[in-house]
Specification:
- The chain has helices at 16-28, 68-78, 96-105, and strands at residues 6-13, 34-47, 50-64, 86-90.
- By secondary structure, it is α+β, with helices and mostly antiparallel strands.
- A four-stranded antiparallel beta sheet has the order 2-3-1-4.
- The protein starts with 5 loop residues before the first strand and ends with a helix.
- The model has no long low-confidence stretch (mean pLDDT 96).
Amino acid sequence: MPNSEYQVVLCTCPNQATAEKLAHLIIDAKLAACVNIIPNLTSIYRWQDKIETSSEQLLIIKTKKSVYTTLESSLIKAHPYECPEIVALSITQGFTGYLQWIDKTVI
């Protein structure tokens, strides 16, 4: 099974309520097989020429490359940030059973 068709998408959120809302939206639309929420993340970044520090939640989204564009659009539409972090990483290896589960779960 070629693993290059799978992705992990990372997306930060301002709080738990937003993270859960986005995770449910993604799962309900069958755009991901699983979304993990990692709480209490500290992000330090430059925004509008100032260094900011924020407490955030991280979504770890397991999905397929074929739905990335729809997934990204859904996140942007529902996300409260002006410029949300949405980055995709290719899965180059993985347990075949898990990857087959992603195939069965994602549209």
